[in-house]
Amino acid sequence: MNNLVVAKFGGSSLANAEQFRKVKSIVLDDKRRRYVVPSAPGKRCKDDYKITDLFYLCHAHVQHKISFDDVFKIIEERYKEIVKELELSIDIDAHLKEVRKQISQGASADYTASRGEYLNGLILADFLNYDFIDAADIILFDKYGCFDSEATKKAVSSKLGHIEKAVIPGFYGAMPDGNIKTFSRGGSDISGAIVARDTEAGLYENWTDVSGFLMADPRIVDNPKPIERITYNELRELAYMGATVLHEEAIFPAREGGIPINIKNTNAPQDKGTIIMDNLEGEENLGTITGIAGRKDFTVIAIEKAFMNAEIGFGRRILSVLEAYGVSFEHMPSGIDTLSIVIDDSQLDHKLDKILEEIKRQCNPDSIHVIPSMALIATVGRGMAKTVGTSQKIFSALAKNDINIRMIDQGSSEINIIIGVETKDFEKAIQAIYKAF
Ligand code: ASP
C-alpha cells in the first residue's frame, strides 16, 4: 500500500463545465490524486438526461432501424459545450464522428454505452493535463464476459506502473477479442475500486453529490446525521436494505485490497464524507448504532405444524418448493413449530398460489397463511454485539409509537436487527428508531 489516491468522479460531478472546474481544483489540491476515474456526464438538473441513457437510446434506434440523429445531436452538444467552455484544444468533433460511425454501423450496446465515459475521460485528461489510459487496455473480461481479476491486475501494473498521472474512464473494459464490455449500471464505482486495488492505493475516493451516507433516509427522517465511519459489513447490510450511494459490487475489490473508501461531495469538498473500512478497532461504537435502512414490498409465508422441530427434512422440503419455482428468499425466522419465509414481492410474480399449494401437498402443515405488504427495517451497528439493550431500545420505541412488530431477525454477525412491520408503519417505525438512538 502506498500514499496514492484513486479518485472516481460520478456523473453529476462531471455534468457540465462548471462541475469539471470543481473536479480540477479537487484533483490538483492533493498531489496524491494521481489516477482519476470519471463517469459519463450525468444530469445537470432533475429533468435533464444522463448521457449514458442517451447512448443506450441511440443503440435502440439503430436496432429498430430508426434514425438516431436527434438523440446523437443532444449528446454532441453536451460534449461540445463542455469543451468550448473549458477552452480545450481536444478535437472532440473527430472523436464524436468516429463514435457516430461505429454506432451507425451496428456497434454493440456495451460499446455504445461505454462511449459516455470514454469521451468524458478524453476531455478530463486534456483538462487536467493527465495521460489518458483507455479502460479497454486495463480492465479485462474473459470470453464469457465475466470480469477477469488476474488479467486485469497484470494489465494495470504493466500499463500504469510507469505513468505518473492518468485518467481512466469508468464503467467498461474489454474482452479478449477486443470487444467492449460494461459493468452493470453505475459501474464506474467498480472500475475505480479495481484501479485502487491493483495500484495498491492507500485510499479510494468516490466523489458524488452527497456528503457520504446518512444515518437514515432524509426523505423519512429530518436532517439525519452523517455516518463518518462505517465497516464494509455494516455498509453491505445498509446497502442491501436500500441505502444507495455506492455500487454494491464496488465494495469487494476495495475490501480485498484493504483500501478504505471515502465517499466525498464534489459540491462540498470540505465535508468529511463517509469512510468505509474494515479495521475500526477502538471505534466500536458501543451503545449506539451506525444507521437504519429499510425496504417495502415483502410477502411472508407463515407456516405452522406441531412438532415441526422433530420432523426431519421439513425445512428442506419447503425450500425445495421455492427452488422449483425459481424463487429466492430473504429471511427465514423460525420458532419450535413455526417457520416464516420472507420473500421479495418481485420474486413471486403470480407464483404465490402455486407455491402455497405445493407446500401444502409436500409438507402437510397445520396452517399456512400469507402476510402481504410487509416492510423490513434494518438497524445496523457494529457496537450491537457488545452492547446490552440495543434491541430493547428498538422495541420500546416501536411500542411507544403503537407499531406492531410482525417479525424479528438477528443475523449471526450481530451487527443487524431486522424487524418486519406493516407497510403503513414503515416511515413511522424508522423515525421512531432513529429518535431512540
Ligand atoms: N455511466 C454509467 C451509468 O450511468 C456508469 C456510471 O455512471 O457509473 O450507469
From TrEMBL:
<dbReference type="InterPro" id="IPR045865">
    <property type="entry name" value="ACT-like_dom_sf"/>
</dbReference>
<dbReference type="GO" id="GO:0009090">
    <property type="term" value="P:homoserine biosynthetic process"/>
</dbReference>
<feature type="binding site">
    <location>
        <begin position="8"/>
        <end position="11"/>
    </location>
    <ligand>
        <name>ATP</name>
    </ligand>
</feature>
<keyword id="KW-0457">Lysine biosynthesis</keyword>
<keyword id="KW-0220">Diaminopimelate biosynthesis</keyword>
<dbReference type="InterPro" id="IPR054352">
    <property type="entry name" value="ACT_Aspartokinase"/>
</dbReference>
<dbReference type="GO" id="GO:0009089">
    <property type="term" value="P:lysine biosynthetic process via diaminopimelate"/>
</dbReference>
<dbReference type="Pfam" id="PF22468">
    <property type="entry name" value="ACT_9"/>
</dbReference>
<keyword id="KW-0067">ATP-binding</keyword>
<dbReference type="InterPro" id="IPR001341">
    <property type="entry name" value="Asp_kinase"/>
</dbReference>
<dbReference type="InterPro" id="IPR005260">
    <property type="entry name" value="Asp_kin_monofn"/>
</dbReference>
<comment type="pathway">
    <text>Amino-acid biosynthesis; L-lysine biosynthesis via DAP pathway; (S)-tetrahydrodipicolinate from L-aspartate: step 1/4.</text>
</comment>
<feature type="binding site">
    <location>
        <position position="52"/>
    </location>
    <ligand>
        <name>substrate</name>
    </ligand>
</feature>
<dbReference type="GO" id="GO:0005829">
    <property type="term" value="C:cytosol"/>
</dbReference>
<keyword id="KW-0418">Kinase</keyword>
<dbReference type="GO" id="GO:0004072">
    <property type="term" value="F:aspartate kinase activity"/>
</dbReference>
<dbReference type="InterPro" id="IPR001048">
    <property type="entry name" value="Asp/Glu/Uridylate_kinase"/>
</dbReference>
<feature type="binding site">
    <location>
        <begin position="208"/>
        <end position="209"/>
    </location>
    <ligand>
        <name>ATP</name>
    </ligand>
</feature>
<keyword id="KW-0028">Amino-acid biosynthesis</keyword>
<feature type="binding site">
    <location>
        <position position="219"/>
    </location>
    <ligand>
        <name>ATP</name>
    </ligand>
</feature>
<dbReference type="InterPro" id="IPR036393">
    <property type="entry name" value="AceGlu_kinase-like_sf"/>
</dbReference>
<comment type="similarity">
    <text>Belongs to the aspartokinase family.</text>
</comment>
<feature type="domain" description="ACT">
    <location>
        <begin position="379"/>
        <end position="437"/>
    </location>
</feature>
<dbReference type="GO" id="GO:0019877">
    <property type="term" value="P:diaminopimelate biosynthetic process"/>
</dbReference>
<dbReference type="GO" id="GO:0005524">
    <property type="term" value="F:ATP binding"/>
</dbReference>
<comment type="function">
    <text>Catalyzes the phosphorylation of the beta-carboxyl group of aspartic acid with ATP to yield 4-phospho-L-aspartate, which is involved in the branched biosynthetic pathway leading to the biosynthesis of amino acids threonine, isoleucine and methionine.</text>
</comment>
<dbReference type="GO" id="GO:0009088">
    <property type="term" value="P:threonine biosynthetic process"/>
</dbReference>
<feature type="binding site">
    <location>
        <position position="117"/>
    </location>
    <ligand>
        <name>substrate</name>
    </ligand>
</feature>
<comment type="pathway">
    <text>Amino-acid biosynthesis; L-methionine biosynthesis via de novo pathway; L-homoserine from L-aspartate: step 1/3.</text>
</comment>
<dbReference type="InterPro" id="IPR018042">
    <property type="entry name" value="Aspartate_kinase_CS"/>
</dbReference>
<protein>
    <recommendedName>
        <fullName>Aspartokinase</fullName>
        <ecNumber>2.7.2.4</ecNumber>
    </recommendedName>
</protein>
<keyword id="KW-0808">Transferase</keyword>
<dbReference type="Pfam" id="PF00696">
    <property type="entry name" value="AA_kinase"/>
</dbReference>
<keyword id="KW-0547">Nucleotide-binding</keyword>
<dbReference type="InterPro" id="IPR002912">
    <property type="entry name" value="ACT_dom"/>
</dbReference>
